[in-house]
Amino acid sequence: MGAALALMAQMCADVVLRDKMINAGIVQRAIPLLQYNATRKIALGALAILTQFKSSTATTHLIALSSPELASLALSRPEDCPTVELVVIVLAQTLRVTLIAADLPSASFLERLQLPTVVEAIQSILRRPRVSFSIITHAIDMFAALTLYRPPPRMDMPSLTPFLTAFARCNNIRTRAIAISGVMRLPVTENPGIPPLFSQSRLEESVHRGVPEHLACPLMEFGPGPMKTDILVIIDSSYKYRCAMAEAEANRESDLCSLGRRLADLVQVHDFAIGDKLVDISPSQHPPRTAPFTSWIDCLHLCSQALRSQLNPSLTDLDAADVLEMRFLYYRGHLDSVFSIARAAIQRSPDLAYAYFFLGMQDGREESLRMARRGLLCPQMTPFVRTQLLCRTATHAAHLGFALLRSPSPYGIEEGVALVEAALHDTDTFLEEASPDNLWRLLILDWKIILTVLTKGPELSHELSELEFIEFIGYDIAPRQLNAARDLLLSSSTSGYQEWDHVVKRYDEFDRSLRTYAQSPVPDLWFTQIGSCNVEYMPQRDDHTFRLHPSEMYKCSWCNKPSSVLRKCGRCGQTVYCNSNCQRLHWDTHKAACVRGL
């Protein structure tokens, strides 16, 4: 029976034969053989092959239901290293596929897996002195995947946090990315998708009572201008907005074009400058008697139409009309229409920064990053728009960088490193330019800390004074889950590293030594070794040193800014640029060395 099972397992490398073997009941035949010494390794090897290659959901779930028995098997045979290693491989690959599936299994099914018991068993194995590299790598992947599972309180797994935070400080940047991503998924927040409500009246009441001295001093020291802090910008712009609307209401024949130009300027000053959210009592309850509009927000649309309907509208008026229409549609929730107008606007006015402000909100992170990066090159924009574009480039680059570093493909490592460097650069720029009371400062500081841990380890203070400004203003723009993840990463870093220091060092030693040897393909390992039952699974790796360095191939040849969306010179293909502006500015220097590619 064992020989037949081994032959069936070898056939599973072929997708057609694998389906036939599954239909023939290879899983049902393998699981009972785990209890016999003579066939245990063959059965585990067969299950490892089935979980390594893409199998059906039903097959994966059938193997996953044996997780408690597999964990007990590994604990009962601590000296049988091949058996323990195969058990960990099967558990890691099965649970990972189960938990990352688009359709998460039911809660009753997940409870049958007894995941806390499995985690405790794997961690007991990891504490042994002879733990192998394969066991450690599979444990990291499995524990990171377990953070996708939201267990009930009685099945919570707090031991995952110190383990993942410990490996956030290992030498391998890809492993650090996997561990940190797991930590970022651990916090569970209530209603994370509901944004907080901003109250203009609350801010004005807080300012009227007086800004605390320890918050007022940084505001006074920031910049030469008196109107650069967010608090004053919001109050001043909203006051001008109310004055403009009151004047329009009082005027029986309101000049919507003049009003539209004023509102277009205010829209770009701050996100909270205009809109119904700044009116404590809905404007519809107090409609203006003589104005041609019934709502202050609807006025944006009417002013936009008035600017477009002029006999010969200027380019400035057309840009103002687009700004008003985009802001109106965004407030109404019509994002697709906003994006359409923004794309048309940059075709006519490539340097309209406010259009890139919205194009940086698209679902596709790569396109949003490219648009936000292009928006930063616009010659004229308000400080608010610039900081928002910096915020979006940092956020998009961070998410894309993490995704590439977590990917098993070795070809995305350089681009992932470049994206992380770009995100760090943008967070530094934001923190230098934004006022101390900027509402998005805590979000960027969270990313700054997380990216610093990813690249260098925790180097920043655990005390975050920026949080006090958020509490004073009464608006927390940073996602609560990101805040909690940052707290977990910093608070558990020391204790986690102390508990798992020996495992991290052993992993680093294995990883360093294995980079010097060529790696055989995984399927060949299975075919050549399953017959002798001496299977040693080695996950695919690349030979990158995983140390951050200036990635020149991902920096603009003119402005030297890091980016993953650069375009090559069409003649030589050797230089890369952010856009045509950088290429034009560099052309006088580059044309002597530029040779048309053959």
UniProtKB/TrEMBL annotation:
<keyword id="KW-0479">Metal-binding</keyword>
<dbReference type="Pfam" id="PF01753">
    <property type="entry name" value="zf-MYND"/>
</dbReference>
<keyword id="KW-0862">Zinc</keyword>
<feature type="domain" description="MYND-type">
    <location>
        <begin position="556"/>
        <end position="594"/>
    </location>
</feature>
<keyword id="KW-0863">Zinc-finger</keyword>
<dbReference type="GO" id="GO:0008270">
    <property type="term" value="F:zinc ion binding"/>
</dbReference>
<dbReference type="InterPro" id="IPR002893">
    <property type="entry name" value="Znf_MYND"/>
</dbReference>
<protein>
    <recommendedName>
        <fullName>MYND-type domain-containing protein</fullName>
    </recommendedName>
</protein>
